[in-house]
Amino acid sequence: MGSMLFSPLKMRGVELPNRIVVSPMGQYSAKNGSCSEWHIMHLGSLAVSGAGLLIIEASAVCPQGRLSPSDLGIWSDENAAALEPAINFCRKFGGAKIGQQLWHAGRKSSTTVAWERQQAIPLDKGGWTPEGASAIPYPDRNTPIALDAAGIKRAIKDHVDAAKRADAIGVELLEIHGAHGYLVHNFLSPLTNQRTDAYGGSLENRMRFALELFKAVRDAWPERKALGIRISTTDWADGGWEIEDSIQLVNKLKELGCDYVTASSGGSVPEQRLSVFPGYQVPHAERIRKETGMCTMAVGLITQPKQAEEILTSGKADLVALGRGMLYNPRWPWHAAVELGEEFFYPKQYERSHPSMRSGDFLKPAR
Ligand SMILES: Cc1cc2nc3c(=O)[nH]c(=O)nc-3n(C[C@H](O)[C@H](O)[C@H](O)COP(=O)(O)O)c2cc1C
Fold first, then answer.
1. Three-state secondary-structure class, residue 163
2. In the chain, where are the structural domains located?
3. Cβ distance 55 to 8 under 8 Å?
4. Are strands 296-299 and 260-264 parallel, antiparallel or unpaired?
5. CA 114 to CA 124: how far, in whole Å?
6. Most-buried pick from 63, 77, 110, 317 (CB within 10 A)?
7. Are 273 and 265 in contact (CB under 8 A)?
8. Which residues contact 121 (CB under 8 A, 6 or more apart)?
9. Distance 149 CA to ligand 1 centre (A)
10. Fold of the domain built from segment(s) 9-358
């Protein structure tokens, strides 16, 4: 019997050839939100990696929703026009389905890029005022303004408009970024949401923004295309968002037609108590899957093919996403296929790299 890792999964009209996902990873290499040649190289190499789904990095739905000035965006037609050839390039050579993550960085925004240690960019040095659920700053960052009712409407519309642009350039799956201390998460967590209106206070009120946003995007996104969300299942901090809250949120998302949930964690507050070990977030993907019946994507230090296979066969998740492991070794799916005894598709130009082809006469025609 074949492995589960290399078995297909259908979400609405999107048929993933296998369960390996390239996790969205910001490249800090865009100009005015538009993708660069770096993205063509980066996405192209991952599209031919053999993964079943490639999720394009967090893409800001409005300029002030970026973390750094170099983040990718999808707020303008120019952004979409720049990304379209990259997507076509990926499709021409690779078998991965193309997804994209929609994002507003919320109270964390206005920082330098990752390799400049994500320092706040002050207002007088080209920075901007972040938008959050409440005017509570992330330590050492600019103080956000709390979105008012009109701001909430606008942020939702920005996600909807971004989804329409993504549809127009051929993206087949969208993931709302609801994790890592960004805008959606700002509303969910009591540590960052101290509102007294209908969007703050009770769990139901704190979930309102996420649910309204999800519904608006679902309504605008074609029925046959998949829509999921990444959440931080817990803040890992006292008085914060907890896994039990996540279960309740996912039950509501299910009613709205959510296709999958990626179980990430943390990012809300720097004092989080997070211990990182292989598969550290998998138990939360498992709990959500078992308690809600939602399709889950596991992520976080999944690096070994047998580890990935076990996550699937034991019913902990339906998909496994790899981030750093795919940057380190973009041929990870090929190696996993060999380890799990699978036949696998190679671009014909690379066929002779398969271990079974290396020992023979290399002048012989490839298989
Ligand atoms: C360079 C880099 C950029 C990332 N950018 C994003 C992002 O855009 N959106 C997101 O949800 N997570 C982002 N992450 C988190 C990864 O998607 C992933 O969840 C995390 O790295 C844990 O998985 P891993 O151990 O396989 O790397 C990023 C991680 C890295 C290393």
1. helix
2. 9-358
3. no
4. parallel
5. 21
6. 317
7. no
8. 68, 69, 110, 111, 112, 127, 128, 142
9. 31
10. TIM Barrel (3.20.20)
